[in-house]
Fold:
Amino acid sequence: MKITRVSTVAVDFYRTNLVFLRVETDAGLTGVAEATLEGQEHAVQGAVRVLEQAVLGRDPRRISQLVYEVARDAYWRGGPVTGTALSALEMALWDISARELGVPVHRMLGGQVRDRVRAYANGWFSGISAPEDFAAAAVATVATGFRGLKWDPFEAADLHATDRDIDRMLESVAAVRDAVGSDIDLFIEGHGRFDVPTAIRVARRLEQYHPVFFEEPCPPEGVDAMIEIRSKSPVAIAAGERWYGRQGFVRALEEGAVDFVQPDVTHAGGMLELSFISTLAAHHYVPFAPHNPSGPLSTAATLQLAATLPNFRYLEIMAVDVPWRSDISNEHLELTTEGDVMIPDCVGFGIDLDLDAIADHPFSPHPMRLFQDAVADIRPKDARSYFSRDGQPIVPLETVVTPVRA
Structure:
């Protein structure tokens, strides 16, 4: 079997564009993967064209050899653009091999340790800002089955925030905790906003709300800063979505920068690299909770990893998405009433793309400006659930909040 073509296709997804990668072969098998990098779609597509020239005519089943040699032969290594392109290529090669054998990808990675994984919802807060609206949206999201909620309450904070600002920004956290009670897990996103003293003050104020973790409290390149923050934080610290390859994780784990590690399969090197990072994390008894606020193929790949990795703790996933998410592929996700997402037992990643439906939503520029965009504006107002239960679509209910004290 030989690789005959590597190509990409982009689809508008409101605040970003998803980039899908397709690896075609002379055996008629096509592997698919996700190469989404917010605001850098053209750069990633260019990097994929460079990779194509390195792998045309090669055997797609020799995954380790191909990935090693492509990475080795590059003069400029690492970083988000090259890392995303190479990650997607690696994932698509796994999809091809699994399709040829007629098995799920997890069968090739050691088999299952679980058939479901605990999920927490991102994106459930789209377009809202008032604490009472956060509370209402949280209750509605919990009613669909989710037992964990994540959001960034910190507006456009840039390194520093006054105590008054912090108290105001945490009003949504207080409102959500009161509304959903103590049994629902809360995950607080920082997006790398704060300097060390501010992050510590934020962490100390968060303690009363019992979050599972405080994510990226300082810029991700500041490992020393994160070590200092974790040493003084009363809540767990998580990071890793903007670290690439094992090199980005070794020091953070060795020196105790994080309590949860969050590599993204789409950026950090693909399936085998995330498996390696999970082993590094397990050596330090750090749970594995990959970053995944993404599309159907990133989610499918992350679920296959969840099937195989014993220290995989939480799956991040969008609670709702653009109305056309269900049109562009045959994605099928089951959300249980206990807050778990079932791991599909499918061939390959189990995802086939509908190129005609994708063409109905062509690329649209979405510059990524973290400190200018509204942090809650990550999905459209008409976003909808794309999950099922017992074979039926889950339809979120309109919920009036009746606060329940934790």
